[in-house]
Design goal:
nine-stranded mixed sheet, alpha+beta, 34 strands, globular, six-stranded antiparallel sheet
């Protein structure tokens, strides 16, 4: 996996079965017929042993001279195994292994030693912002429904491989970065089929195990599908009971799960069904559980039949029906892995951040959750420790390798993981030390607002990346530095004041960039009408059905005003000498994709002084890679607003009703504010009316939510007295017709291309309103920028998804070359205009 790349460093994460040393060699590609320049070779580095037959490391290469944007570079991983050297192109001879790697783009050839070689490649992010292309996505569940949208990344890489820089059409340019914005694995919703495979490989490859009995775990109920009581009643997690039965619980399980979602190496083909994975049999997973049930129905005598008789009906048991469905979904996942997943991860630098499902649903939701699952459950604490340690190993290490060298918290963690896996997997002192490095603590002194904070010597999960002085990326940790303004039982603020300072104000030495990317696992800007429905406290259905806030998934940024408003104003600290900023926010989590545009004007940004500031924000959400839910799979025991993602796909958002028009006052004195509203009667509001704030900071008023009027001429007269300190407008962005069908990957015949484009044009036209605002199918985000007079003129958010028609074509025609296109293209205007007058809709 290609991870962090800068002009003078390359980092590659590798996992091997046997002990070895590894190093990187860098080449500059000079075309397919000329010899490449060999630029640098690193020193051999030993691997970290984490099991009898598993070794890991992030192999780094520091260069003497900087690489150049717009150039294709290739890298080789060289291995020293017992004194014999191998490389990517001859490692297959080791131990008789064949077809071990499929990680290069075949259209890029390196003439090395007179031979044609294939190597993984990459290009650097450009200095010119208009040449930047970024891929993003989230939420990839192996037994999720639908096709794996992450497959689309390879199509883009393949098609653009020879176009690293100057192109006429920006969609022909090769992407330089990929952000995976959370839920890269699902530890809390695991198919029993996959958990069975995970445990077998854990024993085979790692060879060590943990005894959870001293932590209160009922170890007799650890089989796939049998863990719900341990998870809910012992670990005190808030996972839905119907999926809790196969929750990951041990560090070794988390480790193997990562290996199985990112590589096909541990998946075996069923010899009786070529192209399908070998999966455990139903009888082996659920011994004694029948596949079918028979019920007898007796027709009552009152029914006017000449000869009433007993009627027998045979049907599949619920367990077997679920098993068959999950076998089908896992087969699709396996087929996607087998194609190009390793090539995707090897040919574009990937940057990651965790959300909750890497460990468990609702991770660190609020103070009460933390108290129950961490402070008062030894088992809950161990599971969270294991999940966060595995996240550090497989995701965070590659984000910031500098934190994992000797003497740094990450380096200390690696030593502890080595001790667990090689010496004593049950040593309490080692596990306590790991917990101190990876888990936050709840700080809740009397009469103060509770917060989650990091312990001294622990890892930070947020990080920073900059491209010269042109633009920067702030990757936020919204899980381990939360604030609970409503108390431990309340809805969380996703980042405390301390977190906002450390993650937004402080990173980087040069604070003068006019373009800022903010990556937040939970989208900062949500879909207005969906969030409004969640806030509806008057819904008797919701009150009766959901006993706690976790079931409503109330983790949107906007549900805690202080954290939400201060996030926006804190961004101005990134460039204190500029009065205007442009910000692009990426998010995932919600299992649907969309785009929003914000314009922001402030005379006094919240808690950031009395200076005139302005900005525009493009809010871009891509979710999920693979976790869509259709009506046939909706279960009423799940979370009401997240269960049927495809239902949002056809939603039409209104430019007025679904637009937020927010006025804000600092009100730091916590006094009483009353905002008069008069004029025409609103939709539900009797006028005149006052919006009153008593002791609130910030005091914010969303005109559209408050008045709830669907008609522009119904807007009442609002008199902001005192005048507001800031004002912003958020509007949903609707699809623009691109007027073209992007070309497929290289190598397809003209006939297949013609049928392909014709089929997709027909599908696009049939899509109608589907995917116009919201994409409820599995999807991937693809971002390109266009220059303008104020910096960036437009952001193009191409959302790739496969329609039901695509899937039928693919299933019926094996030569159909793809599974979807960027049917939804959102064009976001990044120019800032004059602040609209009060009462201007």
């Amino acid at each position: 996996m290609l991870r962090k790349v800068t002009p003078n460093t390359i980092n590659v994460f590798i996992v091997t079965r046997d002990d070895c040393q590894a190093r990187l060699k860098l080449y500059k590609h000079n075309g397919n017929t000329a010899a490449p320049d060999e630029l640098d070779t690193g020193a051999y580095t030993p691997m970290l042993k984490i099991g009898a037959h598993m070794f890991v490391n992030v192999i780094s290469l520091s260069l003497g001279a900087n690489m150049t944007p717009g150039i294709t570079y290739g890298y080789n991983v060289e291995f020293n195994i017992g004194g014999t050297e191998y490389s990517l192109w001859n490692i297959s001879v080791y131990d008789g292994i064949t077809n071990i790697l499929k990680i290069a783009i075949p259209s890029l050839i390196f003439k090395i030693g007179g031979l044609d070689r294939l190597l993984p490649t990459f290009v650097l992010p450009p200095i010119d912002k208009a040449k930047l292309r970024v891929i993003h996505g989230s939420c990839r569940k192996p037994h999720g429904e639908g096709l794996d949208a992450m497959e689309q990344v390879y199509k883009i890489l393949h098609y653009t491989a020879n176009n690293p820089d100057n192109v006429t059409n920006p969609s022909d340019r090769r992407p330089q970065m990929m952000f995976l914005t959370g839920d890269q694995i699902y530890a809390d919703d695991v198919s029993p089929i996959l958990l069975d495979m995970i445990n077998k490989y854990a024993q085979l490859l790692l060879g060590w195990d943990e005894n959870l009995a001293p932590l209160g775990c009922d170890v007799a109920n650890m089989a796939p599908g049998a863990r719900a009581d341990n998870i809910i009643n012992v670990a005190k997690f808030s996972v839905d009971e119907k999926v809790a039965g196969s929750h990951l619980m041990k560090l070794r399980e988390f480790i193997i799960m990562y290996c199985m979602v990112w590589s096909n190496a541990l998946w075996k083909e069923d010899p009786a069904k070529p192209g399908f994975p070998a999966l455990p049999a139903f009888a082996d997973l659920f011994p004694g559980t029948p596949e079918e049930e028979t019920k007898t129905y007796v027709v009552p005598p009152s029914v006017p039949l000449a000869n009433p008789w007993p009627t027998q009906v045979t049907f599949k048991t619920g367990e077997f029906d679920t098993y068959e469905k999950q076998c089908s979904y896992l087969a699709q996942f396996y087929q996607a892995l087998n194609k190009n997943m390793r090539a995707i991860l090897a040919n574009i630098p990937s940057y990651m951040i965790c959300d909750d499902h890497e460990i468990t649903d609702d991770l660190f939701y609020n103070g009460s959750w933390f108290d129950g699952a961490i402070n008062n459950s030894a088992l809950g604490k161990r599971i969270c420790t294991s999940g966060m340690a595995a996240y550090a190993l497989f995701q965070d290490w590659g984000n910031k390798p500098e934190d994992y060298i000797s003497g740094q918290p990450g380096g200390t963690l690696l030593n502890y993981i080595y001790n667990v896996s090689n010496n004593n997997p049950d040593a309490p002192a080692i596990w306590n030390a790991i917990s101190d490095i990876v888990l936050p603590e709840l700080y809740a002194p009397v009469l103060q607002t509770p917060v989650l904070r990091h312990k001294a010597g622990s890892l930070n999960w947020h990080y920073y990346y900059e491209v010269s002085n042109a633009y920067e990326f702030l990757v936020l940790d919204t899980r381990t530095m939360r604030v609970f303004h409503e108390g431990n039982d309340g809805v969380p603020g996703l980042m405390s004041e301390d977190a906002l300072t450390k993650q937004i104000a402080l990173p980087g030495s040069s604070k003068s960039k006019a373009l800022i990317f903010v990556i937040s696992p939970t989208p900062v800007i949500g879909v207005n009408y969906i969030e409004k429905r969640k806030e509806d406290a008057n819904s008797n259905f919701i009150k009766k059905r959901f006993a706690n806030k976790q079931q409503l998934d109330l983790e949107h940024w906007s549900f805690d005003k202080k954290a939400y408003e201060h996030l926006y104003s804190k961004l101005f600290s990134r460039n204190p000498n500029a009065t205007f900023l442009q910000v692009i926010m990426l998010g995932g989590d919600v299992h649907y994709a969309y785009s929003s545009r914000m314009q922001y004007w402030a005379n006094q940004p919240y808690m950031e002084g009395s200076v005139v500031r302005k900005m525009t924000i493009a809010g871009l959400c891509a979710s999920s890679f693979r976790n869509e839910v259709s009506a046939s799979n909706v279960g009423m025991g799940e979370r009401i607003f997240e269960v049927y993602t495809k239902a949002y796909h056809g939603d039409i958002l209104d430019d007025v009703i679904d637009k937020s028009v927010v006025y804000g006052w600092q009100n730091l004195s916590l006094g009483k504010l009353s905002i008069p509203i008069s004029g025409t009667s609103g939709y539900v509001l009797a006028l005149p009316h006052n919006v009153t704030f008593d002791g609130e900071t910030p005091a914010t008023f969303d005109r559209n939510r408050e008045l709830s009027t669907p008609y522009e001429n119904d807007y009442a007269n609002i008199t902001n007295d005192p005048y507001h300190d800031w004002h912003y407008r958020i509007a949903p962005v609707k699809r623009t017709d691109p007027g073209y069908v992007p070309a497929p990957a290289n190598g397809y015949t003209l006939d297949s291309y013609k049928s392909y484009t014709a089929a997709h044009r027909a599908v696009y036209e049939k899509a109608g309103q589907g995917g116009k605002f919201i994409v409820g199918y599995n999807n991937m985000g693809d971002i390109m920028l266009e220059s303008g007079p104020q910096g960036i003129g437009y952001v193009y958010h191409q959302i790739w998804w496969a329609s039901d028609e695509d899937r039928k074509n693919y299933e019926n025609d094996p030569n159909f070359p793809d599974m979807g296109l960027p049917y939804t293209i959102h064009k976001i205007d990044m120019n800032l205009y004059n602040e609209p007058a009060l009462n201007n809709p």
